[in-house]
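User: Continuing from earlier, I have the next pair ready.

Assistant: Great, send them over.

User: Here they are, in order.

Assistant: Folding the first of the pair now:
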Amino acid sequence: MRATLRQAARATFHLVVSAAMAFGSYIFITVLLITAILTVTVVGAFMLPETVLLIRRIAGAKRRTAGAWTGRKIPEAYQPLTGTVRERVRTAVLDPSTLTDFRWMIAYYAYGALPVLMLPLWPLGLVVDGVWCGLLRRQALVLPLISRLADLDAHWSTVLLKPSPKAQLAVRVEELVQTRAGAIAAHGAELRRIERDLHDGTQARLVSLSMRIGLAKRAYDRDPAAARRMLDEAQTLAEEALTDLRHVVRAIHPPILTDRGLVGAVRALAASSALGVTVTVDGLTDGHDGPRAPAAVEAAAYFVIAESLTNAAKYSGADRAEVHLARVRTGLRVRVRDEGRGGADEAGGSGLLGMRRRVAALDGGVTVTSPVGGPTVIEVELPCVW
């Protein structure tokens, strides 16, 4: 009986909130009528976007309450109302979610009265279930109906407020446009970095190498010792230029990923880090044994881990870090944690923005948790097919 009362009380709270929202929507009819009349007369067209925004807030509140009851979040798929008045009006009218919200509000005028049915159930349930359940130890009959009403309210709200496929497609296209722009920006930044590294490092060493060889050729007949010294310097410059080229190649796609796979590459990266790094693996194997993620996914994961460990070594003040790699059903999951001072900021030039862009280009997601005082946890989800 006690559990039945708790569940009925929880359902009652949900229905009371729904009743308050329904009452507000009844009052909102006046605003809708004024907006419709003024929009038809063109005089008050500027009110349409504001009214749509208000409807979105009401629908959003209902999505949250229904999601809290069912435990399943109801997604939103709205187009932003920005620009001039004409653009805002056009977006408000053409957005498929506007029709979805309006349809829900009309239906809510009817099923928003469900909480009224709850009122007689409480006194009846306390009497009937008090005897039937409390004394006779049978299953409650009346009070569970309150939960049924809450289930019905949440179910209808979920069905009516769920974005249409057209709205979801529009939001998806907008996301792809943004990730494409981020990928292009990241690609451009990478090309500029490669150009800068080649120009400032390798090219300068090769020019100096050419000059040393030329001077050695001139001095070879009259001063063989000086020519030999210049050739030794040229050999040193050639080795340094080769090292620079290897660094550039590794930054594009580390060869160790091809040779040893992601797990082996991450273990090598951890071994060379200034921190004491612990690597744990779930569902992945070293080398070429077992399934591997696509090369682009492995490269992105390697970049995230390398950047995270570099940031931790430079800024966190920690002496240890943890790296976790996991194969999941939808792709690859990466988590890097350090016990440093925290407070990581994307605007602070710590490489988080570049990391986010690289992951977004593969349709992945990045979650950064870094409260002041630590710890800092960077979690990355990279979708792929195994």
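And the other member of the pair:
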Amino acid sequence: MSAGSRPALTRIVRNLPRVAVAAAAALVLSACGGGEEKTESKPSGEASGGTSSAAFPVTVEHKYGSTTIDAEPKKVVTLGLSDQDAVLALGVKPVGAVDWFKETPYGKWQWSKDLWGSTPPQVVGERDEYNMEKIAALKPDLIIAQYSGMKKEQYDTLSKIAKVVAQPKGSEDYQATWQVMTQQIGKSLGKDAETKKLIAGIDEKFKTVREKHPEWKDKTVAVGEPVEPGKFSAFSPKDPKVIFLSEMGFTTSETYRTALGKDNIADLSSERFDVMEADRTVWLGTPDTEAAMKADPLYAKTKVNQEKRDLFLPYETPDIGAALSFNTVLSIPYAIDQVVPKLEAIK
């Protein structure tokens, strides 16, 4: 079954079909005038003050080269699945964002809905499939794609619309740390000082957890998602969800790292539940997928299940799994408050 046909709340990141960018390019250019035309109106994506024009120009390196931003961006579109959080945290409301969970990317999550207020963004795509015409119609002056799988041809087309800051250089798609992605976004917006404070605040929260729970240091963790009966997915040690737990002191086993390799997600059958044996195994999903997992006779035989060292976190209601998946400067404090007590309850 293809990624696009899977229920959104039971599928996070996949390599999706690439946009037909060559065909879209001509329409995009006609809509945006090759990226030269700019609006003079006050958009919802305008920075909310505090950015010094002296911060520009700035040059940001990324996967496809480097981008020089000459002036403070006024209209920002985010194409990374969680990029909007860092942009919001820095006082800017994106005018466009992508859909991830088959829900509007604003006003839903506990950690960000208040910051969107009454000015929601235009939805300009789903995951890595971007609607070039909608993006062009917004006339952005900056496009950010950090937590994304943007392809080179997509980058080239988007660069004809506006300045584009693609995925961080040196990281696999969807595997850059939240710190790096936040730094890239902060630099792009000319808000380095504010960015450093945000990152320092989160680092301090993780430090507090580690100091309170030294027993978690070097304990192994595995993070997965039930897919369908007999199948599950495991997430890379470099995936934000695993990084979140790693920053509390946890690590991953050699078996787990080998099974993932360089992939962000490994699809495995029930016969490979050995990959998920860990001191703490975290499953993300829905009540239905949790029930199906617990009913799997092979899973019932695992030590982590028999010793009750597994933890099932829903994507929504409450939205704990989503907070881990986002793993941003906005969602991390919320996730820490929700997840730490559940980990503490496992003896």
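Worth noting for the second one:
DSSP finds 14 helices and 13 strands in the chain. Confidence is low (pLDDT under 50) at residues 1-51.
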